[in-house]
């Protein structure tokens, strides 16, 4: 069972590339972030034409997440991250697909830091940890995946110096991410690539793609019950180089 994550950076703007990837790679589950679409304008019918059923949690102009499942509708469990009733940003959706609990998230970027955006990022991560602890207690196969906007290790960026002041790599961001792992989650990409050097994002600026100046911020975290079924994980890097591509590449995990 292949479960994938793709920050699409505008579902309507990237629709041809997205449909191309879905048909060529055919993941059982595809989790999208930054769909940048209101609920009523999400192009669900386009995915239905190629056999994918969708649920989504949209927002006008930015954010937004969706879960696509091949062949059968995902069973929605929740939308939105609990813990702050005043937070209305569309950043998380949960569903059950083929016996696996899927949590698709788009974690706040946090820049510029320090400041209120960075404070929001850290508060969001604290709330996420609470939710993920509840999921661990359920003792079911669970995958929490998406754009975490955290570069966990120095080996996860082309240049530590270039990213040193960025919210993605601050000690507080990393500490919040490592607390998730310490609770019992497995970072699938890192586990299978301990030497690092695996990128999931390349900026549109400064020829980052052409120079391979990327970093890893899209992660697939597995509960112990899912980690026991881990077969493979990787990045569909080539899709970043196609015409009018997202600045992220799809990441995926395969479970037995």
TrEMBL record:
GO terms for molecular function: double-stranded DNA 3'-5' DNA exonuclease activity; metal ion binding. It comes from the Bacteria. The record marks 248 as: Interaction with DNA substrate. GO terms for biological process: DNA repair. Keywords: Hydrolase, Magnesium, Manganese, Metal-binding. Mg(2+) binds at residues 7, 34, 147, 149, 247-248. Its cofactor is Mg(2+); Mn(2+). The record marks 149 as: Transition state stabilizer. CDD domains: ExoIII-like_AP-endo. The keyword Signal does not apply. The active site is at 106, 147 (proton donor/acceptor), 248 (proton acceptor). Pfam families: Exo_endo_phos (PF03372). Belongs to the DNA repair enzymes AP/ExoA family. NCBIfam families: exoDNase_III, xth. This is Exodeoxyribonuclease III. It comes from Croceibacterium mercuriale.
């Amino acid at each position: 069972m292949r479960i994938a994550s793709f920050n699409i950076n505008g579902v309507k703007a990237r629709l041809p590339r997205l449909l191309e990837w879905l048909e060529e790679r055919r993941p059982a589950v595809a989790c999208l972030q930054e769909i940048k679409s209101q609920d009523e304008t999400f192009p669900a019918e386009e995915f239905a034409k190629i056999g994918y059923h969708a649920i989504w949690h949209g927002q006008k102009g930015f954010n937004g997440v969706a879960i696509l499942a091949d062949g059968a509708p995902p069973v929605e469990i929740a939308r939105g991250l609990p813990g702050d009733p005043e937070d209305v940003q569309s950043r998380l959706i949960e569903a059950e697909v083929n016996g696996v609990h899927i949590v698709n998230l788009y974690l706040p970027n946090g820049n510029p830091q320090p400041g209120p955006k960075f404070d929001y990022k850290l508060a969001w991560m604290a709330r996420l940890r609470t939710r993920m602890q509840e999921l661990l207690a359920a003792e079911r196969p669970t995958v929490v995946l998406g754009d975490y906007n955290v570069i966990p290790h120095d080996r996860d960026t082309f240049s530590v110096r270039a990213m040193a002041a960025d919210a993605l790599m601050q000690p507080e961001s990393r500490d919040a991410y490592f607390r998730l792992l310490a609770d019992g989650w497995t970072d699938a990409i890192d586990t299978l690539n301990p030497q690092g050097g695996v990128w999931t994002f390349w900026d549109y600026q400064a020829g980052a793609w052409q120079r391979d100046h990327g970093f890893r911020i899209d992660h697939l975290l597995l509960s112990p019950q899912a980690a026991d079924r881990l077969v493979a994980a990787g990045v569909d890097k080539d899709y970043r180089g196609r015409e009018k591509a997202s600045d992220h590449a799809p990441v995926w995990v395969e479970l037995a």
